[in-house]
């Protein structure tokens, strides 16, 4: 509940301000200047409507004298927001007051509509400023691709759940290994919901120091703790009408779990150091890379909080459980790398794709993306070759592209093997550069198409692996 103090001897103005607010506001009125400061000292007020003559009785009312008067109020109530009341003929003094630090002003006679409008605009201004600060500090560079079909049945089932729950305001719990794309799914749910025009606020709970978690989530009042130099709205407040994504929710401490449980139950919260109730209007999506039920059994996570979060659970599969999507994901990342690096690489060596299909992917999609980015930077040809991927990726150690020197063989046989390897590698690279077109590849290689086809058969090279994906084929968004 917001607490407002009206300080004026203009009874019509006091009545107009009193009529402008709902029952969610507690309003007090003082009618003599001597009552002003004692009233501020008795209880915490959020806003004051104050007659300028009460604040600064000096005849000139200079900028400095008004600023001194305002500072005297803030000594008593550091978080107080000040709206000046002044006659129309003293409008210049009202402007001076705003320049000196007051939040806004009203002129007599005051109407209830004007008072309500000024207070609402003040609240929206603070919300917009806080949201802008978060957006500036957030990583908002990546655009969200539309939900598209993938090849694996397990991921199709996940997307079906996303479509079903998106339009509801239900709390969602995403559980899966690190790097499986839980954050992308949270953004997809938000983008397909009726809250898409509102903010999406991501909070990595494990990355915030324990002493600041409650401040980040719920905000704080000025002076609530050392370093709190001004009031700050928390993520729940900024995300009103939107979505708040609590990533790695299993890392929060027991005291913060209690606070979060209260918010989910009561649908209200208070800033740290504050007493006013703020409605909880954000939709919550939580994520964890650990089994929260196991944490409950070990006494590390509250069972009642898990019940509140686990209203609509979605299990996100690991990459090794959706291997059908690896080529689609690789092509998606490759396209993104082409745009970022402005470097022409047309595809991925079939041997690399084969290794991808066998690798266990402990880091999941994130590991795949990182491996491709590293190889893309190192690659000097038109195809991502095995040379630029870690040997661990390939069964049996180093990739085939590395020619081993067997000292038990005569030099002539080593030379023949190296020649064969170089010839095969040349054809693969040229075929990739020509995007799988046999005639163009033969022309650039200086051989006939018949010779090229014989070599393709000899080395077991499939030209279809080097052709670009046709538009309209299935693509992946995760």
TrEMBL record:
InterPro entries: AAA+_ATPase, AAA_lid_NorR, CheY-like_superfamily, Homeodomain-like_sf, HTH_Fis, P-loop_NTPase, Sig_transdc_resp-reg_receiver, Sigma_54_int
Annotated positions of the 4-aspartylphosphate modification: 51
Gene Ontology biological-process entries: phosphorelay signal transduction system; regulation of DNA-templated transcription
Keywords, sorted A to Z: Activator, ATP-binding, DNA-binding, Nucleotide-binding, Phosphoprotein, Transcription, Transcription regulation
Annotated ranges, domain Sigma-54 factor interaction: 152-377
Domain (Response regulatory): residue spans on this chain: 3-123
Gene Ontology terms for molecular function: ATP binding; sequence-specific DNA binding
SUPFAM superfamilies reported in the protein's UniProt record: CheY-like, Homeodomain-like, P-loop containing nucleoside triphosphate hydrolases
PANTHER family with a match to the protein in the record: SIGMA FACTOR (PTHR32071:SF122), TRANSCRIPTIONAL REGULATORY PROTEIN (PTHR32071)
Name of the protein in its database record: Fis family transcriptional regulator
Origin species: Desulfovibrio psychrotolerans
